[in-house]
Amino acid sequence: MVSLSITDLFVPLHFLTYSTLLGTQLFQTFVVVKISYQALPRSAFTTLQKRMFPVYFRTQSLLLVLAAATFPPYGPASLVKEKGNWIAFLVAGLTAGLNLILYGPRTRSVMIERIHQETRDSRHQKSTSGAMAKLNRLFARNHAMSIHLNLLTIGATLWYGWRMASALSAVSR
């Protein structure tokens, strides 16, 4: 009878968690958003995004934590041994955390406020109000920050994946 320890499970769990994280990031960022933007009317796109991105940022953060927790052979204790690995996780964790806690909610809030302001403006005038111009600038800043943080998170995830794949090719020779 073969006895498996928890550390024996870390390698497959880590690969599955990491691949799910990377796949989710790439699919959401480069496929779902693009297709949704092209296929949906603006109001439907906005409704979808305000519901989808909080779930995406929570999932991204959870998968990062799980990938760090299952880092072979002993989880986070093994992760901190090599600078390149823990720095990649630190960068990804900080940027994903900022989107989860700060810029994602700010962007969502301003997006919703813009919808309400658009409704108020359409009742009173044909041109953009000062309040709407201010909301547009606020949205643009927060949205740009969220996009850049997400790209940094993906970059850090790819950096770690490159390191992991490089270690595999060295082991298999």
Mean pLDDT: 93
Rg from Cα? 20 Å
Count structural domains.
1
Task: List the uncertain runs.
Answer: none
Largest sheet: none
In DSSP terms (H or I, runs of 4 or more residues), the helix count works out at 5
Strand content: under 5%
Walkthrough of the structure:
It is found in: Membrane. InterPro entries: TMEM205-like, Xanthocillin_Biosynth-Assoc. This is TMEM205-like domain-containing protein. The protein has 173 residues and is mostly helical. The protein has five helices and no strands. The protein has one domain (6-172). The relative contact order is 0.12. Helix 2 (42-69) runs antiparallel to helix 4 (83-124). The chain has helices at residues 6-39, 42-69, 76-79, 83-124, 130-172. The two termini are 30 Å apart.
Question: Could you outline the blueprint of secondary structure elements for this entry?
Answer:
Blueprint: H1 6-39, H2 42-69, H3 76-79, H4 83-124, H5 130-172
Helix pairs in contact: 1-2, 1-5, 2-4, 4-5
Q: Which keywords apply here?
A:
elongated; Xanthocillin_Biosynth-Assoc; transmembrane helix
